[in-house]
Amino acid sequence: MEQEVYRRLNTTERVLGQYLTGRNNTNLAGLDVLALRTGILDAQLKPVIFSAYKQSSESGISNHVTIRFERTYINLGNHYHTENGIFIAPVTGVYMFHWTIVSGSSDFSTQLMVDGTPRASAYVPYPGGVDSSSAMAIIEVNKDDHVWIQIYGSSEYVYGGSTSIGSYYQSTFSGILLQTS
Amino acid sequence: MEQEVYRRLNTTERVLGQYLTGRNNTNLAGLDVLALRTGILDAQLKPVIFSAYKQSSESGISNHVTIRFERTYINLGNHYHTENGIFIAPVTGVYMFHWTIVSGSSDFSTQLMVDGTPRASAYVPYPGGVDSSSAMAIIEVNKDDHVWIQIYGSSEYVYGGSTSIGSYYQSTFSGILLQTS
Amino acid sequence: MEQEVYRRLNTTERVLGQYLTGRNNTNLAGLDVLALRTGILDAQLKPVIFSAYKQSSESGISNHVTIRFERTYINLGNHYHTENGIFIAPVTGVYMFHWTIVSGSSDFSTQLMVDGTPRASAYVPYPGGVDSSSAMAIIEVNKDDHVWIQIYGSSEYVYGGSTSIGSYYQSTFSGILLQTS
Predict the structure, then answer these.
(1) Crossing angle of helices C2-21/B2-21, nearest 10°?
(2) Which of B40, B122, B135 sits opposite A44 (nearest CB)?
(3) pLDDT in tens, C84-121
(4) C177 and A138 in contact (C-beta within 8 Å)?
(5) Helix and strand tally (H, E) in chain A?
(6) Which residue in chain B is spatially nearest to C43 when comparing CA positions?
(7) Which chains touch B (3 or more CB pairs under 8 A)?
(8) Closest to C34 (Cβ–Cβ): which among A18, A111, A119?
(9) Which positions fall inside the C1q domain (chains A, B, C) (predicted)?
(10) What residue of B is the nearest CA neighbor of A133?
């Protein structure tokens, strides 16, 4: 028995150590896996992904008002809230945000807000007719922070559209937790 | 021997349990790892990533016709098909899609189609000259579903360009499997 | 003792094998984990993520000149260099790049450059006023390759803006290591 037990233990320890550290001769006893896995598996076991769109066009949106994307293509974890356009970060981490604004009355800019502070901004042009503008920013966000897209302008128009009627076009707001921290 | 075997077994079980569950005192015997790992490692072991671009400009594209991006920057797994512009999902999961359309004859919209049904739409402006418009949507797609970008308009123009000649500009279509489900 | 040791060894081997291969009855001894994990954990243990923005507008940018995004929203690993606008890939892998250019004097195109070679290009329109244009490309990049966004045009204008003053708008350049290869 002794020989087989040691052989199997050696193999198990080798495989596990290789997997966790990428090296041979890992000292498993000295491995703090709970620290190691933070930010690795968490994001995968509890994915945080949302992709929302504006279903109805909205006019006369005032300065500093949140753009509400009332529908979602997907909302894993339900951390984006369609009733007010706010995403609440469930964990501290690195998030990628992308938003597309279709507009058509005057130019303005949009701000990616985190708990009331602008963290990125984008320009929404008005070349004399309807235009579309997209932006992406990857930022760190703390657990429970509120994240939204806000207008910097006055009395602005943001297009929405249903998905079933293809002729319509949608303003969107998406977010992905890339990694916990 | 006994003492050493138990010590090493304890360590191995602790490390593996910590890694898989994020907790101490995991009961390995009760762990259904095959279920746990679904959606975790699969997407990483068999990545599904494509990024395609239009090489040649195309005019007179009719309503409901698929935009064909004839070349790829990358096509891991070869699930995007350059011959018809269609991506066939190899697994059920959450996919991020991004597309950029450069156009210049009239405005229209594009639809992200899944098996014939529009799942998202975007506006392609015409401010009197060439313009560029990008969109992103994250959606769930079933295994074997066909995904493509389609025109809602009539007789539309979509620009393409080779990569080697820098002055040209490219319409693109990219997709990433974020997670299996 | 014998029975307990074998029971625990069996369980540990089963769980580890299931996790690594997704199958029961894995032969751990035959598993080359160091090869298996390449491209899996590496990208997660050492994330490579940057998201940079232009803080100050710049005019008169010449043909083939790199656009310098002087600030970062985030720069995990510090592989993007604010002093010259260049990202140096720390590992060979698949990277997603996204860039948004706000401009307003004439139309031009931008090129995603890798070690001096254009790998993707995008159009930046000029509809008679300020406009914004975004693009994404996913490409394979070799370790130590230099990646940047370059202008194809002459005497071009690229907008920047501070984050604290929301009325300003930002040109951006972001990159994510999706997977090592």
Answers:
(1) 30
(2) B40
(3) 999 999 999 999 999 999 998 899 999 999 999 999 99
(4) no
(5) 3, 12
(6) B44
(7) A, C
(8) A18
(9) 43-181
(10) B133
Q: How far apart are CA C49 and CA A7, in angstroms?
A: 41
Contact B127/C124, CB-based, under 8 Å? Answer: no
Contacts of C171 (CB under 8 A, 6+ apart): C53, C54, C67, C69, C99, C100, C101, C102, C103, C158, C159, C160
Interfacial A residues in 59-98 facing B (CB < 8 Å): 73-74, 76, 98
- Cα C8 to Cα A28, B130, C5, distances in angstroms: 17, 68, 5
DSSP letters spanning B86-130: EEE-SSSEEEEEEEEEEE-SS-EEEEEEETTEEEEEEEE--SSS-
Q: Mind listing the pLDDT tens digit for each residue in A113-145?
A: 999 999 999 999 999 999 999 999 999 999 999
Q: What angle do CA A55, A61, A67 make, to 5 degrees?
A: 50
A5 Cβ under 8 Å from any chain C Cβ: yes
**CB contacts, 8 Å: B150 with chain A:** 166
Largest CA distance in chain B: 83
Give the whole-angstrom CA distance, residue B157 versus residue C23: 50
Q: How many other C-beta atoms can be found within 10 angstroms of the C-beta atom of residue A71? A: 17
ipTM over 0.95: no
| CA nearest to C141, candidates C111, C172, C117 | C117
Burial level of A34, CB count in 10 A (0-12/13-18/19+)? middle
Q: Are C88 and C102 in contact (CB under 8 A)?
A: no
